[in-house]
Design goal:
The protein is α/β, with parallel strands linked by helices. The chain is built from 14 helices and ten strands. It has a single domain, classed as Aldolase class I (TIM Barrel), CATH 3.20.20.
């Protein structure tokens, strides 16, 4: 395996930064646009993605951006490709390469992620386009009798084959086995399933001769289901999540980047912060973030598809990125979300000039 892959994996979790997942499929992006009355068009999607990749100072908190197939081929209005714009900003371009989760035959309620066919050729093309890492997401539902051993094994095997092909192509695989938050299961049940899934994934990674030093694990936090009547505290979630990971994730992995999985931006930041406050000095790998909606959602609501709102939306996007970098340092507080307290200090600490407005003032404008 090329040393470049190992170096890139380390760079993706260096300097207390994290990943920005902007790899939503076109249908998913359109659904999010619809909630805000934004036109669901190619031009609107391109404009939104340009807003993200041109956000001033974003590289102070974001190390890599996961793109979608349409996005990696797009350009800014001035003709500069998004990949070049990201590189120029100091952000590593990545690419989502799976073809989505489909029904698993013979297993009602369960999914298998597809996309291995011709993946080798697609990875070679993405590398030539400028991507230096890739992402593949498997989804594991929790319910009565779910997940089945067959579902876990099938998805773990696909993740491992994908990872091996990525490393062959010179790309860092981001391996994402997501135990879904949907349902009424307890935190303890989520912990049990997450550990089982992670053990299966790493067993398959070993079998497919994937070098652990050259991958990033994108993991779910250990959380109770959304409809579970007992919702544990931030510290209890941190304890359960870190304990689970310590039992299942080898120390050779360069880093773990959590998905947000439907959490609010503030809660995702608070839980990540608690893990770093309580455990950072004792962990064998850094725990970072790879958030999509938890970073993008406030900015999209401000943008509303209007060019006049771009600067305000970019400030909101940067704010959430800064909050998550602070969480990696164990320095995030609720005060960072207030109009007056904390924001300027953290922005200046990252070397980013203050825009002179708070997020709440921007939102009301």
């Amino acid at each position: 395996m090329k040393q470049q892959v190992i170096d890139t994996a380390k760079a993706l979790v260096a300097d207390d930064k994290g990943l920005l997942a902007m790899d939503e499929s076109n249908p998913t992006c359109n659904r999010r646009f619809a909630k805000f009355g934004i036109p669901q068009t190619v031009d609107a999607r391109r404009a939104w993605r340009e807003l993200i990749v041109t956000t001033p100072g974003l590289s102070k908190a974001i190390s890599g951006a996961i793109l979608y197939d349409e996005t990696i081929r797009e350009q800014k209005k001035d003709g500069i490709p998004f990949v070049r714009a990201l590189n120029d900003a100091g952000i590593i371009p990545g690419i989502k390469v799976d073809a989505g989760a489909k029904d698993l035959a013979g297993h009602p309620g369960e999914k298998i992620t597809e996309g291995l066919d011709e993946l080798r050729e697609r990875l070679a093309e993405y590398f030539q386009t400028g991507a230096r890492f890739a992402k593949w997401r498997a989804v594991i539902a929790v319910g009565d009798g779910l997940p089945s051993p067959s579902c876990i094994e099938a998805n773990a095997h696909a993740l491992a084959r994908y990872a091996a092909l990525c490393q062959e192509a010179g790309l860092v695989p981001v391996v994402e086995p997501e135990v879904l938050m949907d349902g009424g299961h307890s935190l303890a049940r989520c912990c049990e399933i997450t550990e089982t899934v992670l053990r299966a994934v790493f067993e398959q990674l070993y079998a497919q001769r994937v070098r652990l030093e050259g991958l990033i694990l994108k993991a779910n936090m250990v959380l109770p289901g959304l409809t579970c009547p007992t919702q544990e505290s931030v510290d209890q979630v941190a304890d359960a999540t870190v304990g689970c990971l310590l039992r299942a994730v080898p120390a050779a992995v360069p880093g773990i980047a959590f998905l947000s999985g439907g959490q609010t931006g503030e809660l995702a930041s608070a839980r990540l912060n608690a893990m770093n406050v309580r455990f950072k000095s004792r962990l064998p790998w850094p725990v970072a973030f790879s958030f999509a909606r938890a970073i993008q959602q406030p900015a999209m609501g401000i943008w509303q598809g209007q060019q006049a709102n771009v600067a305000a939306a970019q400030r909101a996007l940067l704010h959430r990125a800064i909050c998550n970098r602070a969480a990696r340092r164990g320095e995030y507080t609720a005060a960072m979300e207030l109009p007056s307290a904390g924001r300027g200090e953290h922005t200046r600490a990252l070397g980013i000039p203050s825009p002179g407005q708070t997020k709440f003032a921007v939102s009301a404008a």
